[in-house]
């Protein structure tokens, strides 16, 4: 009996968490989905370089990092505007108010 009760509590918690993932306003989805469209157009890279001193007089040290965001949509050659439309519809349940190429901030 205890195992069944614990299982039902877990299921109730999961259902509550999923219900919090409901649709977002279309305006918010449009802003969020611009990133997906950009990644479908080309990979995004970030390079960071710096110089610092070691703790306890260990001298000067250089450091750096490189990150690359690469999407499956880019690898599959998908059209960024279609990626954008699908993303907005998935997140908001509505089609975008205007196409990707008319969105402020789109430079594609």
UniProtKB/TrEMBL annotation:
The protein, known as: Lipoprotein
Q: Which domain of life is it from?
A: Bacteria
The segment annotated Disordered runs over 89-108
Tell me yes or no: is Signal among this UniProt entry's keywords.
yes
Which N-terminal stretch is annotated as signal sequence? 1-22
Q: Per its UniProt record, what PROSITE patterns does this chain match? A: PROKAR_LIPOPROTEIN
The alphabetized UniProt keywords are: Signal
This protein's species is Paracoccus subflavus
């Amino acid at each position: 009996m205890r195992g069944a009760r614990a299982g039902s509590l877990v299921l109730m918690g999961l259902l509550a968490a999923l219900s919090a993932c409901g649709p977002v306003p279309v305006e918010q989805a449009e802003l969020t989905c611009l990133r997906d469209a950009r990644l479908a157009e080309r990979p995004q890279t970030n390079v960071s370089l710096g110089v610092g001193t070691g703790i306890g007089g260990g001298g000067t040290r250089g450091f750096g990092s490189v990150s690359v965001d690469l999407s499956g949509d880019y690898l599959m050659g998908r059209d960024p505007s279609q990626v954008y439309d699908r993303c907005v519809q998935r997140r908001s349940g509505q089609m975008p108010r205007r196409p990707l190429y008319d969105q402020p901030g789109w430079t594609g």
